[in-house]
Amino acid sequence: MPPRTNDDEAETRPPIPGGDAALASTTPEAETISCGTGAGAEPGGSGAEAGGSGAHVGRPEAEQAASRTESAGPEAEQATSQTEPARPEPGSDAGEPETAPVVPHSHASPSGTDHRVAAVRRVGASGRRWRAAQLVGCAALLAVALTGGAIAVGAARDGGSAVAVASSAVDPGVLGSGNLDASIASLQAHLRSQPRDFGSWATLGLAYVEQARTKGDPARYPQAEKALKRSLALAPRNDQALAGRAALAAARHDFKDALTYADQALKQNPYSERALSSRIDALVELGRYAEADGAAKTADTRKPGVPVFTRYAYVHELRGDVTTARRVLKQALSVATSRGDVAYVAAQLGQLAWNQGEYTAALTYYARALAADENYLPALEGRARAQAASGHRDEAIKGLETVVSRYPLPGPLVELGELYEARGAAGDKAKARDQYALVDAWIALARANGVNADLDTALAAADHGDKASALRAARAEWARRHTVHTADALAWALHVNGRDKEALPYARRATATGYRNAAFLYHRGMIELTTGHAEDGRASLRAALKLNPGFSPLGAARARQALEAAQ
User: Fold this and answer.
1) Which residue did the predictor score with more confidence, 520 or 122?
2) 320, 343 in Cβ contact below 8 A?
3) pTM for the full model?
4) Which of 236, 467, 488, 490 is most enclosed, with most CB atoms within 10 A?
């Protein structure tokens, strides 16, 4: 998330629940922000581990703190877009970093912006003024304890000029704006004059990782790898580059390597926010949830802030503890100080609400996210899902068409294709096929750039492609990691290939942690019905539709049909 001013309104911040020392010590109380004597601690506070602070892993990556600046405006972005690429030293293996195309800042609302966004924006200005006054004396605390700060620019530490690159959450979609492009161009300009600045090479590599995520462009991953290798060639054990390698490995779905690099980075710097966060991500994505919970508590003790809070929340959500997940995310939102952080955390709250079938609440949170960043992909996509589930299919289609025109990623492509199928107007079947074909194209591009796309393949192909390919991909992914998501994908791939008896244990394993996911329950219910467990199947389908009756444009309708047929 690029560093931006906060659009939060003080009066509308969620209440702060008590009970967690580390969380409570970093949150405003009685409409003030306490400047403690240490990171995340009030005067006299112990900084003890939280009993529930937050993390979102399939959704996050996090970065280390240094400096913040206001967002570059259109003029500044235009100027930086003219910067020539940095030229590395002769003999460098990093190649010449390309200047990323700059996306001009738009003052116009995107298609589908609703009254909720406008309402949040109207009160945003007063909230910003209030927050700015409160933060004057708390800059150091906020940079370290509350938000985790921006991506550290090594030049600041090594004698060069500092460039603010990104905000603290640094997650898929969070950095998707011209600010990231401008920051990359600034880093390239700096490296042209200071090619031995290993910290800036590390930061550039991480910025490429985020650019690849936010723009749906896996071609940036090789550039990220070159920049990070250059940093390590200059300073072999620097924690910034090691943490960057962890983030890159996670982005490519190589979670074993992500864990290895994160551990190496933490040996050099136990307080590296990027490494702490990547370690949680890797453990979650390897299915090692108990260890992920411990890693999140450690990270909350060492580096409390938005990136850690959101991950901790996700660990709790995966175990079915939605109450704690929601409380922690609200707490994270209450301490978010940049627009990027606000957009990221509000969208996480929107996703959590949508998962529970709370569509009005989801739309409200997505509106808050879009008021902070009108181009934030997860909020645009999430809003469209909530609109579709609420019965506003045409608005949802229009919104997703906008999303996939900018970011042709598998999730929104499949969702849009299914909405076309569900609508069934003239030409919709052909439009749906086009979306599914684009999924295949994205997967091919991702694999060409070192991304393990087996889970994407399994999920998309099971319903909309080659079923045999779906099963091969699901088996390959299960061989690498045992998560609830890979268990569900393998169960469903087995089901569509007519191997339901083999599928049932995986379907039950996908729901065994208590994770409240309607699609998982739907898959389990269909498999249970097919294997002769009629009562269990009906119960699973009813649970899916009760939890989130609009969980899928096609799946929800099929669940209802199967339930009626099984009565």
Assistant:
1) 520
2) no
3) 0.69
4) 490
